[in-house]
Design goal:
Helix content: 25-40%
Oligomer: single chain
Number of helices: 13
Structural class: alpha/beta
Distance between the termini: 42 Å
Mean pLDDT: 90
Number of strands: 14
Radius of gyration: 21 Å
Order of helices and strands: HEHEHEHEHEHEHEHEHEHEHHHEEEE
């Protein structure tokens, strides 16, 4: 259990203001370069720590921090002390690429958790792959990141061997939502909206394909600029379309206001989205009008998993100001997968990091398998999570409530 006195250390790590020199640091050859006998291994974190999506990003950062602290407390990797370096990408691909370059330049970084956004991941993958630096995202869901641009055309090819993820993909998430809406919620006519970004457009496309395959009708389609909070033009189209549900491919900063404006215009139909809207901030932004809206998210509700009880308790005891949000458990497991890979490399090398530690950690990641917060954690030949579970949540009574968990049957 973390003590309250470590809250200040957490904040200092997040700000990049604390250096654990007492623990030592690894020199370029992987040796012990300071007194104390320990080698410092840095786990990088890239996420939106400021801006509209910071609620999700801070949950990612805090959960990685908790994993590193617990690994240190347990002395899980003999002779190794873990620390984190958290960088803010503000959900911008250009910032993500700059952060990737910075993390690659730090020889102590042996793995990176993040980012949140698939579009940001696209800008980072080659930088990490060229450096043979492992990247594990707890949140990216665009299938092309692991299976290539022609993943839906029958040709799946892994673009970058250094990229892994613990979240399942939109190839499953979109169709899972479509099956729930058509079969369970009995919705037959949908208006599809997306924000034209990598995540949102991709998710909306997989949803639409499955919904129409099931026999559902598309009443209309449109795109929005998520930076514009006045959606009156698209709201007018939705209201006149006769749709009984709206599917939104995008994230909560736009989804919340869109939902509110749809209802205020007189269209009393639910807005449904993916994991990008599954946040307490969506509830704040959509207000009472959002009651009844739905979201899918990766995995089962963390609070209901026996495997997550310790994580939830330790996160609370850690005194983090922000909630772990939708990706907390996946972020913890992403960090722990890097820790497991580092442990194998150290154990295989007589208790020390080898000179080519990054490439060895990358090789070790392929065989990582353990029981994590979110269930069994392992990766397939594409670097995708083998855990394909998803959950439908409904906004009711001021909170998100799980209504159905399962896997896509396609």
């Amino acid at each position: 259990m973390r003590q309250r006195s470590l809250i200040a250390i957490t904040a200092a790590l997040a700000a990049g203001a604390l250096t654990l020199t007492a623990c030592g640091s690894r020199d370029d050859k992987g040796g012990d370069s300071a007194a104390g006998g320990d080698t410092t291994v840095v786990i990088g974190v890239d996420a939106p720590l400021t801006g509209d999506l910071s609620a999700l990003g801070l949950g990612i950062k805090n959960s990685v921090d908790l994993a590193a602290k617990q690994a240190n407390e347990k002395k899980y990797v003999k002779g190794v002390t873990f620390k984190i370096e958290a960088l803010d990408d503000q959900a911008q691909p250009s910032s993500g690429q700059q952060n990737a370059t910075k993390l690659v330049a730090d020889k102590n970084v042996l793995g990176v958790v993040g980012p949140l956004n698939s579009s940001v991941a696209e800008s980072m993958q080659k930088v990490f792959d060229d450096a043979k630096l492992v990247q594990v995202s707890p949140a990216n869901t665009n299938p092309a990141l692991t299976q290539g641009p022609d993943w839906n055309g029958g040709t799946k090819k892994r673009p970058f061997n250094s990229y892994f993820r613990t979240a399942t993909t939109d190839a499953i998430q979109g169709p899972f939502a479509a099956q729930y809406l058509f079969n369970d919620a009995k919705k037959k006519k949908v208006f599809v909206v997306d924000d034209k970004k990598t995540y949102g457009a991709g998710l909306a496309a997989t949803f639409k394909a499955e919904f129409t395959k099931l026999g559902g009708k598309v009443a209309g389609e449109d795109h929005v600029n998520p930076e514009t909070k006045d959606f009156s033009a698209v709201v007018t189209k939705i209201k006149s379309s006769g749709a009984d549900v709206v599917y939104y491919g995008g994230e909560y900063p736009a989804a919340g206001p869109l939902s509110k404006q749809i209802k205020k215009a007189g269209a009393k139909i639910p807005l449904v989205g993916g994991d990008g809207i599954y946040s307490a901030d969506f509830i704040k932004l959509s207000g009472k009008e959002g009651e009844g809206d739905l979201a899918t998210s990766v995995g089962a509700p963390v609070e209901t998993l026996p495997s997550a009880k310790e994580f939830v308790a330790n996160y609370k005891a850690g005194g983090y100001k922000e909630a772990y949000e939708a990706y907390g458990g996946y972020s913890y497991d992403s960090a722990w997968s890097i820790i497991e890979a580092v442990k194998k490399v150290v154990d295989d090398n007589g208790g020390k990091l080898p000179e080519d530690a990054r490439s060895k950690v990358l090789d070790a990641m392929k065989g990582v398998s353990f029981d994590g917060v979110t269930g069994k954690v392992a990766f397939d030949e594409f670097g995708d999570a083998t855990n394909k579970q998803l959950t439908v949540y409904q906004y009711k009574g001021g909170n998100w409530a799980a209504v159905k968990s399962g896997t896509f049957s396609g």
